[in-house]
Amino acid sequence: MGIQAGLVGLPNVGKSTLFNALTKSSIPAENYPFCTIDPHIAITFVPDKRLENLLSLYRSQKSVPATVTFVDIAGLVKGAASGEGLGNQFLSHIREVDLILHVLRCFEDPDIVYHGATIDPLEDYHIITSELMLKDIDSVIKRLERLERMVKAAQNKPAEQQELIIEQSFLKQVHAALERADFTAVQKLLVGSGYKHLQLLCAKPFLIIANVSEGELDADQYQNNVHYKTLVNQFGANRVIPVSARAESELSQLSEVEAEEMMGILGMTKRGLDRVIEQTYAYLGLITFFTCGPQEAHAWPIPTGLTVRQAAGYIHSDLEKGFICAEVYNYKDIVKAGSEAKVKEQGLLRIEGQNYLIQDGDIIHVRFNV
């Protein structure tokens, strides 16, 4: 499953530095606006210790972890929706991602240029979302104009016309909320609306990355950072991820041993980037099932709520098409039993039909016939 998360932010908030660390790539991250002209894309692994254990238990030749694609999108400025700066590029690239990661500056540094008089991450967030809503207003107006023509053309098709009129009424509500700059109202209207074809930018799920200073990592001192606290009060602690882009950049250049030592010095118990990857994965409502054998141990990310037959389609379309049944047990079962043979001996392996709902950590073997 292709998961894409887009890092967005105003110039010089640490977005490209974070991306460099996230992917261990080498795109420019100089101290001036628009150093990232085109979106840079990189794939990184989702940390999952279960896969490492399965590799050992099955003595597989290799492991294939779940991945997240991160897109570093060109910085924007106020007026992006009207084409200022690199706004048009930004707004077109962000349309493709599944999740927006707002990188917001929460540190003071007179040597790094800031667009405003004082550091204000909440205002930065509002600038970005305002530009998204302005672009969405343009999209909604165009759709409404098209709908008006479609309603007239469907005069002899009452059922079709009624559907178009319902969409028209819905979009007028969305347009009114956008005009009020009521981001929350727009989100509420769009959740479960069924109008996915609209692809409104401000409807995308998002997380907040609070870029704090290195010194605030020790003993979680960032919790006293006034900017971080403002973001938590606004969005909730589960949506705000504290990260020091500078520290992560330095860690990414070190060996595992050196990185562990530096983390100890900084008082870090966990890499900030691991949190970003894990919460990106979790916030999109994904779970992982596994296929294991002597050749490979493979992690498969899927949306919550899929049947085993649907999940089989993520492995190969033939498995879904010719699905007969699946042998299923969970990661917890094999860890408890110690081996696949013991799982079978202890009766922990089940034969499930096509309507079984996959659970996080399930290990499956599909029986099929095409």
UniProtKB/TrEMBL annotation:
Pfam name, any one: MMR_HSR1
Question: Which part of the chain is the TGS domain?
Answer: 285-368
Q: Where does ATP bind?
A: N12, V13, G14, K15, S16, T17
Q: Name one GO molecular function term.
A: ATP binding
Q: Which PROSITE patterns match?
A: G_OBG, TGS
Q: What keyword terms does UniProt attach to this protein? A: ATP-binding, Magnesium, Metal-binding, Nucleotide-binding
Superkingdom in the source lineage: Bacteria
Identify the residues that the record assigns to the OBG-type G domain, covering every copy. 3-263
- Give the signal peptide range: none
**What cofactor requirement does the entry state?**
Mg(2+)
Q: Which GO terms describe its cellular component?
A: cytoplasm
What is stated as this protein's family in its record? Belongs to the TRAFAC class OBG-HflX-like GTPase superfamily. OBG GTPase family. YchF/OLA1 subfamily.
Query: What's its job?
Result: ATPase that binds to both the 70S ribosome and the 50S ribosomal subunit in a nucleotide-independent manner.
Q: What is this protein called?
A: Ribosome-binding ATPase YchF
